[in-house]
Amino acid sequence: MKRVALEVNHLSYTFPDGTLALRDISFSVKEGEKLMIIGPNGAGKSTLLLNFNGLLSGKGEVKIYGEPVTKKKLKKIRSQVGLVFQNPEDQLFMPKVMDDVAFGLFDRVANREEIESKVKKVLRDLGLESLAEKSPHQLSLGEKKKVSLATVLVLEPEILILDEPTSGIDPSCRRWLINYLEKTDRTTVVATHDLDLAWEVGQRMIIMDKGEILAQGTKEEILGNKDLLEQHGLEVPLLYFLEKFNARSG
Amino acid sequence: MKKPLFSLDPRVRIICLAVSLTFVLSTFFPHAFWKFGLFLLCLLAVFYLISPKSARSLRNFLRLSLFLISLLFFLVAVTLIFSPENFRNRLVSSLDLTMKAFLVSVSIFVFILDGDFADLIKGFYLFHLPSGFLAMLTFAYRYFILLQEEFLSIFRARISRTIKRRPLLEEMKITGSILNQYFLRLFERGERIYAALLSREFQGRLDFLINFKLRKSDYLFLLLFSSVVAAIKFI
Description:
Chain A is α/β, with parallel strands linked by helices and about 250 residues long. Helix content of chain A is about 40%, strand content about 25%.
């Protein structure tokens, strides 16, 4: 029986200006599961993700492997939860790619040779070896997105959280990311309005709008519900129709 | 970009800069103009040896030189206008100040700005400079370019929607609004960057992977440069 990796119970969050961003959110994610959180702009997806590693702290409860996310446990929580931000310019802050990827390892690994070898391994796995000595401002957006992912993966988090990972990248980079997410067996939570990505990668879906969860279910239940999607500014993904057509044609 | 004739370890660059600054700040140039000339020639030789010799490098060097020469003329003019009676004494002090500023700027350009700044930060790290200072340098380097791009994007949006010039007061109001937006964006970006730092367990300290070693040529260069500067100073 798989453990519950992430559990959210009655989470609500209000911005300092009084805007209610999240209303009574509850759901859970099992170990190894891939959850897609979909919704239109302003639904509260990014705000929800920031609660998972304690960057924001709302009313209610968030648990990572049964441990509540509190100020005292932030160090442990942040070592278990790897968050990749939507804008890689916010995530990459070191002068060179290899230093950025190595950043989080210095607190965990004492041996510099070991740090170097982990960095080289992750860069090799993601096809980024040639970028090791480059500065982030010399990279294309797709390369920055991959490097952002590398900076988190090198820390081997148990839960990987991605905020709009395919926004602004070209089709080949997008395909690379989809292939990577399909292959990984890490618990993954992706906030996106790229519904084709959600269809290909997701096992379970949550649809959000105006800070609330409207529905949860399998990808067929959520992404096949045309009325529900259209009511909230979304569309049935093309891949859904394609698979249905292929299934009918036998 | 072409490879330089001579690649210097960042630590050697920093030490050479320290040697240059010590020489410049401890020398009164109006009493020995030839020292100014000799040291400048020495810096130009170093520039030739260690610069990547890209067109951009040369252009930056020329711009810097022109700016500093203009500064000299400006200071002379100000001295003449505001204290004609003590003109000679003030001129000598102004000249000394300007020559020092010129040589310090050229030294900083040759040893610091013209190289790989990211490697230079690692050089400071190896000298165990305070981690707060290193963090400041690192983020300043990383985000200076980003801030430029942000400014440029706002500026481009502005000019692409401008068909004709507006009255001066209106232009000033618009510029004020743009600056307001720019600073708001900077503030928001700062918050997001801090959130990214925290989510990767930033504790206030930055560490770097070091991929360079001191070679015999670095020691030789340091020895040669220090000897030349000492010779200029004491002869």
